[in-house]
Amino acid sequence: MADVTITLRPNGPLLVTGPVKLIDTEGKEYNLAGKEKFSLCRCGQTKNRPFCDGTHKECGWAAVDVAPQAP
Ligand code: FES
Prior knowledge:
The protein is mostly beta strands and about 70 residues long. Helix content is about 5%, strand content about 15%. It has a three-stranded antiparallel β-sheet, with no helix packed on it. β1 (about 5-10) and β2 form a beta hairpin. FE2/S2 (inorganic) cluster (FES) binds near residues 42, 46 and 54.
């Protein structure tokens, strides 16, 4: 099984690491040029969707997403 990790960065993007395919809304695969590490925007302000371009730092976007503790 592929070892993929998605990490929520504090007030920032989703950091994706591992061998994944990224598919658009029409079913076409993005050319990741062999990259196994990239960031997906979650602030909605990037000019390079779906990838983070760093704009979240300028627009003041903030998120508090903490996984709940296991019971
Ligand atoms: S999270 Fe970085 S530009 Fe949106």
